[in-house]
Structure prediction request, 680 residues.
Amino acid sequence: MAKKVESSRSGTVVVTANRLRDGRVVWYGPNDTWVEHIAKAAILGVGDDEAALEQAQTWARREVVVDVYAVPVDTDNDDVVPVTMRERVRAVGPSVRADLAVTYI
Amino acid sequence: MSSAVTPLDLRDVNSGAAVVDHAGIYRYDEFDRQFLHQRVAEFRQQAERRLAGELTEEEFRPLRLMNGLYLQLHAYMLRVAIPYGVLSATQLRQLGHIARVFDRGYGHFTTRQNIQYNWTKLEEAADILEALAVVDMHAIQTSGNCIRNVTTDEFAGAAADEIVDPRVYGEILRQWSTLHPEFSFLPRKFKIAITGSPNDRAAIKVHDIGIVAKRDEAGEVGFEVWAGGGLGRTPIIAIKLRDFIPESEFLGYMEAILRVYNALGRRDNIYRARIKILAQETGTDRFIGLVEREYARMSRQAYRLDPGIVAAIAAHFAPPPFADSPDEPAEFAHHLAENTAFAKWVGANTHAHKQPGHVSVVISLKPIGGIPGDASAAQMEAVADLAERFSFSEIRVTHVQNLVLPHVRKDQLFTLWQALGPIDLATPNIGMISDIIACPGLDYCALANARAIPVAQRISERFADLERQHEIGEIFLNISGCINACGHHHVGHIGILGVDKKGEEFYQITLGGSATSEAAIGQIVGPSFSYDDVVDAVETIVTTYVQIRSAGERFIDTFKRVGLAPFKEALYAGH
Prediction:
C-alpha cells in the first residue's frame, strides 16, 4: 500500500520498496526497472510521481516487491538524499556498520 | 540451501561426538522434534507459495510472523526463541553457523533473551528454521499476539541467593503456552518473566505477568504472582495478585489471568490492548477480583500441576556434576593478587555461585565502542567451545544483552579470562555505564524514530577509561529508539528515549528507573537533547552524581536521596 508522500524542498521524490525474495531495499529506476542503489533511482518531479508510483505498484501486484511507497528527496549535484533519517538509513545501510553499506556498482 | 548440520540429537557439530549428557538443558522428545520438522515443512511450502505469487503479502504476513519472520528496514529479520535464555554449546555453535552461512556473520541478542538475524532472505528462511530444528530450536511465538518467550534470571540454577530454580517453571510455562489454542490470538502480545531469587534479575515487575518462585515455611514451592506491568508508551509497575500460590495451582492461576485478559482486553486500539491497560482501567481491586472469580470457577483438578510432571522436568535441570573445589583455590588467589586487570574483571564480571569453588561468569557483549548485544559467528563459536571447556556446555543469554557461563570453577577462571581477551569478550564493565542496553533502533528497526546504537557507542567511547567506570560504579543506562521501549529505557538508572522532531533525532532523558525488586519508572529530567548533545548530557549527569554522592553511594541511591533537582540544574542552568 502506498504511504503518504511528503514534500522535499524541491518537491522531488523517488519510489522505493523491499524486494520480495530477500527483503532488500530497492528503488524504482528508469525504464520500469528496480535498482539497488538510490543514486540510480528515477527522480520524479511534481506531476510525474503519481504515474510512476502507480506503475511501480504493478510490480507489487506481480509479487516481485512489497511495500511500495514514495520517498521525498533532495538532490544536490549528483547526490540523492532522502529527507528523513529513516530513509537515509534505508538507502545506505545501518549507520553503525560501514562494512555493510550499500555499494554503488 | 540446507544446513551443514544433520539431525544428530545434540551431538557435537564439529566432531560428531556425543555431547556430555549433563543436566541443565531441557531435551526435546521425539514428539517435539517431529512437530518442529513438520512445522518447518509447512512454512517452507508457505514461503514457496508466496515466492510463486500464490499468496499475497496480506495473506502471507501473518504466516511468516507466526514463524518469527519480520520485514525490517533493510531485509527480513528472523527472531529466534531462546527459552528462558538457556543455550547448550551445540545450540550456540549452530546459531553461529547460521550467522555465518545464512546471514552476514553476526547476530543480535535481545532484551527478551532471544537472538535476531538482520539479513534473512525469504528464499532461505525455511532452511534456517530447519537448521534451528536440528538443535531443538525454533522461532515460533516470537511474534504475534500470543504468549512470547518466557524469560528468567540468567543465573538460574547457579546463583547463591536462589531459593527455587526458575528454569523448571519456565519450562512448564513454555510447554503450557506453546500453541495454547485459547491464547494464540490474544488482544496483544503477552510476556512472562520468572525469578527464583529474592533479588530480581529478570525485571518481573515490568512484565504482563511476573512471578517470584519461593518456598513457604514448610519448604513447599509456591509463587508470588504479579500482573499488569509493562513498558512501552504507558510504563506501569505490576500489581501483586497473590503472595503465594501453591505449585499445584500454578498453571491454573496463570490460565485464569490469561482468560480474564483474553475476554476483557481491548481489541479496538492497539495502544490500549495490553493487560496493563486492562488492569489500570478496571482498577486494581476489581482486576484482582476478576482473576480470583475466574480462578474460583475453574476446576482445580483439571488444571492441577502434577508433582510427577514437575519432578520429571526438574530432573532435566539437576545440578551438573560439580567437582569438589575449595572456595578460594590457591591458584585463583594468586592470580587475583598478582594481576590487577584479572582482579578487576573478576570483580565486575562474576556472580556468586551456590556451589563452593565456582562462580557464574558474565561475558560482556559491550566492548568499548561496540554494538550492544551483537556477537559475530566466530565469537558465538568460541563461546560455545569455552562453555564446553569450562561450564558444562551451558550458556545463558541475559536480558541486558550479555552472555553467561553459569558454572565455572574458580581455579579455571584465569585461563578462561585469558581465552576471552583475544576475542574481545573480556571487557570488565558489567553493571557499569558502558554495559548499555540498546535496541536496534533506526539502524535496523522499521518502528524506530531514532538511532539507539550509535548513541550507545558514543557514550561507551566517552567513558572508555575503565578505571573511571569503576570509580563511577554501578549505573544501568538503557536506550530505546522509540516509545515501544525495547531498550527498557524506562527502567534504566539513566534512560534515553529517541524521538523524532521534524525529521531530526532528539533524545529524552529519564533518571531513577530500576528493573530490580524495587522497580521504578524513570522520571523525565527536562527537554530533550539533540543527537550531538546527548552524550554531553550524560556526562553532566554522571559528573553531578560523582560530585554529590555520599561515600560508597550508588547512582540510584543518590538519585533517591536528592531527586531530579541537582541534575536538572546542572543540565539546564543557563538555558
The CA atoms of residues 72 and 446 of chain B lie 5 Å apart. Chain B has a mean pLDDT of 94. The longest strand of chain B covers residues 239-246. The interface with chain A takes residues 50-53, 56-57, 71-76, 104, 120-123, 371, 442-444, 448, 450-451, 453-454, 457, 500, 503-505 of chain B (CB under 8 Å).
